[in-house]
Specification:
Length: 129
């Protein structure tokens, strides 16, 4: 079997990987083997944390909405139930932004939700069996 020295392909592969490892601490940013391990680990973390970030933001939005709802004499679950009964389709991101930046608009939504919650039945009627 003939000998393969790789030449420019090998150098390009290593340069590409070391470019990803730029700024890493000590040998992780300079030596190929430890840089390869560090880059692989960092890519795993970034893939995982792109999903975790979505969870974290939803949690933050719910906390903000809940705090603003309690300031308007209701709870988070009652507010969401009332908004659904009123047919108001606003996602949690927008609700949280309104709670922080537009208190009057949020209060108007809470009033609308409270009115529709009183009009709507507590539980949907069960079909007769």
């Amino acid at each position: 079997m003939p000998r393969v020295k790789r030449g420019t392909k090998r150098r390009a592969r290593r340069k590409k990987l070391l470019k990803h490892a730029k700024g890493f601490f000590l040998t992780k940013g300079k030596l190929f083997r430890s840089a390869k391990e560090a880059v692989n680990r960092s890519l795993r973390y970034t893939y995982r944390d792109r999903r975790t970030r979505k969870r974290d933001y939803r949690t933050l939005w719910i906390q903000r909405i809940g705090a603003a709802a309690r300031a308007n004499d209701t709870t988070y679950s009652k507010l969401i139930h009332g908004l659904k009964a009123a047919g108001i389709d606003i996602d949690r991101k927008i609700l949280a932004d309104m709670a922080v930046r537009d208190a009057e608009g949020f209060a108007a939504l809470v009033i609308s939700a409270k009115q529709h919650m009183k009009a709507a039945p507590a539980a949907p009627p069960q079909p007769a069996a």
